[in-house]
Amino acid sequence: MGQVTVTLNGRSYRLSCGEGEEQRLLALADHVRSKLNMLVEQFGQAGEDRLLLMAALIIADELWDARARLRAAGLDDGGESVNGSAALPESGTVG
């Protein structure tokens, strides 16, 4: 089993992943870090929980927008996702 250490907002997190998935996990963490850093620049240290929630919502919004573009291009049938959760709503706008 692989392991990586991710640092977000000055705090380190040790995460496990599948063997060979370390680079993907680090790349995902970099994406989250970039959103988090943008929020810190915009709002300052508004509390770690709040900043991480805001970053998660921004990333979810990006995902919904991407899914909507796939649907519009006829590349996504709008069915259930791989993890079995319900399809995303038509609107990808948060807030």
Task: Give an overview of the whole structure.
With 95 residues, the protein is α+β, with helices and mostly antiparallel strands. The chain is 49% helix and 15% strand. The termini are far apart. The C terminus is likely disordered.
Give the tags.
95 residues, alpha+beta, two-stranded antiparallel ribbon, flat
In short:
This protein is an alpha+beta fold and 95 residues long. It has helices at residues 22-43, 48-72, and strands at 2-8, 11-17. 49% of the residues lie in helices and 15% in strands.
Furnish the topology, listing elements before pairings.
Blueprint: E1 2-8, E2 11-17, H1 22-43, H2 48-72
Antiparallel strand pairs: 1-2
Helix pairs in contact: 1-2
Strand order of the largest sheet: 1-2
- Count of discrete alpha- or pi-helical segments spanning 4 or more residues: 2
Task: Calculate Rg over CA atoms.
Answer: 16 Å
Q: What would you call the shape? A: flat
State the helicity in percent bands. 40-55%
Q: Structural class, from helix and strand content? A: alpha+beta
H and E string:
EEHH
Averaged pLDDT: 85
The profile of the biggest β sheet is: 2 strands, antiparallel
Distance between the termini: 38 Å
Low-confidence segments, given as residue ranges, are 82-86, 88-95
- How many strands in all? 2
Strand content: 5-15%
